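User: Could you check the structure of this?
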Amino acid sequence: MKRSSTIFLQVVIVLIGIGALVLLLWEPHIEGRNAHATLFQIYFDPFLAWAYTASIAFFVALYQAFKLLVYIGRNEVFSLRSVKALRTIKYCAVTIVGFIVPAEAYLFIVRPGDDIAGGVFVGILISFISIVVATAAAVFERTLQSAVDIKSENDLTV
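Assistant: Sure, the predicted structure tokens are below.
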């Protein structure tokens, strides 16, 4: 892969991370029920704390994707470090789904009278994207692990 392509993708990953961080910090201020709330009331909401905790897995996955692009840029794609980065991305995607399911249950159980359609849609959308990412990472991990195994066997026989 060309060096310019990997640098471009690394910049995209950094911009996605910055955008996600800005959204996490800015969105609670524009939420309707926080119109007259103090900063303490806005940021010490248990549901928001749950979302911030879940976002850790997202940022870890972004960091691992960045590292994977570094390995690709160095022509170290067929290495155990690349396999480990893909495995971590897969686990992070599954973790995100694991955080979203209880949050969706919370919306249905605790807030049944509220208008939860937007929150439910966003949760389903993020879950779907996370499942696709986890599946793709698992397929790439398995393929890359096979390639690493074949490479190590060939290195032993030579």
